[in-house]
Amino acid sequence: MPKSCPELPYKACHLKFVCSTQQCGKKNFLSFLIALKNSFNGLMDVGGFINAITGAGGVKIDIRFTPTDQQKQTPDAIVAMDHYPTWKLQKNPFWRVKHPNSTNNNRMASVANSFMAAQERTIFAYEQYQDISGVVTLHLAPGKKVEHLGIKIQFIGRIDMSMGVNDGRPHYDFVSLSKELVPPGILYQSTTEIPFFFRNMDKQHESYRGRNVSVRYFVKVILERKFLPPLQQENDIWIQVIGQAPAQNEAIKMEVGIEDCLHIEFEYERRVYHLQDTILGKIHFLLVRIKIKHMELAVIRRETSGDRVAAISTGGGAPTSIPGLQNDNSANIFTETQTLVKYEIMDGAPVKGEVIPVKLSMRGIPADLTPTYSSVNNRFSVRYFLNLVLVDEEDRRYFKQQEIILWRKELG
C-alpha cells in the first residue's frame, strides 16, 4: 500500500484497498490493516474490525449444570463422573482403584457437594427421567459491549454415525428442543448469568461412545449476531437408563465337543447380569482324548452399526475367534469386536470327570461396560459374549461363544 494513499481521493483509495485484499493472503491483509490504521492516525478501530472478521466478539460462553432442589434430596438422581465412558480399554490393571467413581463407591457424599467438586469436569450421569437445569454464563471483556439478535438454548439428543468406518455419514437427531433465553439487545455487564430448565424431556436411549457410533445428549447455546456468524457453545451430559432384574433368569447349560475326541458341558449360573455382577459357572469334562494345554475365558463386546441393523442384532450372528472389524457389504453393516478381558481358568491336561469352576467379577474388567443395546433407533446394537477357548499341545484352538445380557442396576 503506497504511503500516499491517504492523500488520494476516496474512490482511488478504496480501489487500492480492494486490490490489496484480492492480491494478498490473510497475513498480508492483516498487516495492511495495521498500516492503514497508522496512516489514518487512529481514525479506524482496526482491533475491533479484526475481531469482527475473525469471529472473535470478545464473548465467552460457559454452560454449567446444577441440580434442582428435588434432585438434591435424591442422592441417586444424579452422579458426578470423572471421565467420559468410552469404548477404549484401560490398560492399567489398577484403573478401577484410580477411578473409584466408576464403581459408585462415593455415594455417601451429597449430590450438591459432588456438583461443586466436579465443576471443572462438567460430566454428570442423569437418570433417564430427570429434568435438566443449569446456568449459562456470558463473560465480556471489561469495558466492552456486544450487540446481539437474541440468545437461545437447545437440548439435543443425537445419534452420530460420522466416525470410524462410518466417516462422512450424517447424524440423526431424535430429540431437539429450543428455547429463547434473551431477546435481541445489547450486553454491557462483564458477567451475565441466565438460568435454564428443561422438563420432561424424552431421553429414551442411553448415552454411548462407541468405536463407530455414539449417542450424545448436549445443551447448546447460540448467540446470534448481525452480519456475523453466531457464537455457539456446547456441553454434554450423560444419560443412563436404570433397568430391572428379569422375573426369570434361567441358567445356561450346553454340551459341546468333537466326536470321539472331546466332550464337555459348561454351565453358567444365569444368562442376565447387572454391570457390577459376578459370573459363576463350571466346566465338566465328560470325555477327553486330546492333550489340552490350557483353557481361557474371555468377555467379548460386539458393536454392530449401520442402517437396518435390527435384522442382525436379533439373530445369533456368526461368532468369530479373531477380534476385529467385519463388513457386510450387502447391508452396509459394520461389526467391531473387542476382547474386554481374558484370563486362564485351567493350566494342564484335564481328565475325564474333572470339574473346573468359573468365577469372573465384572467390576474388575478394565473397560466401561454398558447394558446390552438391541437395535437402538435401528442404527446400532451392542452385545456381550462369554468366549470359552481350549488350546491343545499343537496350539489348535477350540472355542464356544455364549451371549449374555447385561443391564444397569444403578448410575455410574
Would you give an account of this structure?
The chain has 412 residues and is mostly beta strands. The chain has three domains: 5-53, no CATH class; 59-240, Immunoglobulin-like, CATH 2.60.40.640; 252-407, Immunoglobulin-like (Sandwich), CATH 2.60.40. The chain contains seven helices and 23 strands. The strands form five sheets. Strands 2, 3, 6, 7, 10, 11 and 12 form a seven-stranded mixed sheet that branches. Strands 15, 17, 18, 19, 21, 22 and 23 form a seven-stranded mixed sheet that branches. Strands 13-14-16-20 form a four-stranded antiparallel sheet, with no helix packed on it. Strand 10 (208-209) and strand 11 form a beta hairpin. The longest helix is centred in the first third of the chain and has 14 residues, at 10-23. The chain is elongated, with a radius of gyration of 30 Å. It starts with 9 loop residues before the first helix and ends in a 5-residue tail after the last strand.
Brief synopsis:
By secondary structure, this protein is mainly beta.
Overview features:
3 domains; 7-stranded mixed β-sheet; Immunoglobulin-like; disordered N terminus; 7 helices; mainly beta; 412 residues
